[in-house]
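Comment thread on ticket #2218

A.B. wrote:
> Attaching the input chain for the structure job we discussed in standup.
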Amino acid sequence: MASLQPVPHLTVEDEDDWIVSFALGAPGAGRLTLTRAPRLEFMVQPERRGVSVDCDRDQRAALLVAVKWGAKNVDVVSTERRYCLDISRVDERILADALRVLGKMNFDQRFQLAGA
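C.D. wrote:
> Ran it. Output below, let me know if you need it in another format.
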């Protein structure tokens, strides 16, 4: 199992694009961002549709495969890599908002969402 990366905070956007972005470690250490733009997906080939996963530390584009949400930890699995995140320091209201947006992102069941 990969070591847990601390998440001091996360941001959630629920506008035209849906975004859940985890800060990784100390400020400036990077972010893991999950993004879905449903209004633009008609322009993308069907096999490339879904939630994109972008990490400042990775070079390759990836799609979200699974999210396992626990009380203190989240596992995010992409087509390229697995991320194990410690969310114990994040406010409960923000975590609830993130789960709600993840549920919206999964309207077509393109990834597995467990523990929500």
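A.B. wrote:
> Thanks. Noting for the ticket: The chain has a mean pLDDT of 90.
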